[in-house]
Design a protein that fits this description.
Blueprint lengths: L2 H4 L4 H6 L16 H7 L12 E5 L11 H11 L3 E5 L3 H8 L3 H5 L4 E5 L10 E4 L2 H13 L7 H14 L4 H16 L4 E3 L8 E6 L4 H10 L9 E5 L6 H19 L1
Parallel strand pairs: 1-2, 2-3
Antiparallel strand pairs: 3-4, 5-6, 6-7
The structure holds pyridoxal-5'-phosphate (PLP).
The site of pyridoxal-5'-phosphate has 6 residues, from loops.
Length: about 260
């Protein structure tokens, strides 16, 4: 389920000539060190060469435990592999755990962070790493058609997000907890009982028709991408009153189908 493996249109294979070796995430969002070690390919002409381990933080809303990072890092060092973190929601992980983002970043060779999503910039992601790595990345960006002379305007929005929207992520996490608690109370919904640590809530519909729920919610001004499992995400445009409204809209649907 890793974003870079599954949801980037096979870009790693196309641009990087990479043959990915997926490993299932553990329930806490980590890649088990032993499972990763087992798929590192031996030096042998028959195999692709293993070069990189890629983590995701948060993974499905779960911040990677801080104690895990040195373990996977030492595996990478033992095998001469680079360690990248898809930290699209890294600041959510940092705020939820009360750990400075630099302490997490210090454990990996490179990482990417989204400035949109919870941080609320209109657009943008950043890549962080050594000077040489970034120089190389700029070259690849250019080849991929991503060079942009006007990026300063977007960077200004990104800087604003980094200066003003980090600490407030705790509100999103609190709102997600309220949402999970509100929805858990409704018959017909099964809410992931793992403690909601960041801004995501996963909800399963036990019986109702997802399309009927989606259209009911739409009439109440709540837009969801329907399906039997829904991922609901809080962010800086969703306040507590919005959470109450959303829970009421869900409740209204199940009250009306029960009647
Ligand atoms: C976990 C994860 N990584 C990476 C990305 C890609 O972000 P961007 O398109 O801003 O580079 C996303 C976007 O949805 C994501 O959810």
């Amino acid at each position: 389920m890793a974003h870079c493996y599954r949801w980037e249109a096979g870009g790693a294979a196309v641009f990087g000539s990479i043959q990915p070796q997926p490993v299932e995430f553990e329930p806490d969002g980590t890649l088990a060190v032993a499972k990763v070690e087992a798929v590192i390919k031996p030096v042998d002409d028959h195999y692709a060469r293993t070069r990189l381990i890629c983590l995701e933080n948060t993974q499905a809303g779960k911040p990677l435990p801080m104690a895990y990072l040195p373990e996977i890092r030492s595996l990478a060092l033992r095998h001469g592999l680079a360690l990248h973190m898809d930290g699209a929601r890294l600041f959510n992980a940092s705020v939820a755990q009360g750990i400075p983002v630099s302490a997490i970043a210090g454990q990996v060779d490179s990482l990417n962070v989204c400035l949109s999503k919870g941080l609320g910039a209109p657009v943008g992601s950043i890549l962080c790493g050594s000077r040489d790595f970034i120089r190389e990345a700029r070259h690849w960006r250019k080849m991929a058609g991503g060079g942009m002379r006007q990026a300063g305007m977007l960077a200004a929005a990104g800087i604003h997000a980094l200066q003003h929207h980090i600490d407030r992520l705790a509100e999103d996490h609190y709102n997600a907890t309220l949402l999970a608690e509100g929805l858990a109370d409704i018959d017909g919904l099964k809410v992931d009982t793992a403690p909601v640590r960041t801004n995501m809530v996963f909800v399963k519909l036990t019986a109702a028709d997802p399309a009927a729920l989606e259209s009911h919610l739409k009439q109440s001004g709540v837009l969801v991408r329907g399906g039997r499992v829904m991922r609901l995400v809080t962010h800086l445009d969703i306040d507590q009153a919005g959470i109450v409204r959303a829970v009421e809209a869900f409740r209204g649907f199940f009250d009306s189908t029960a009647a």
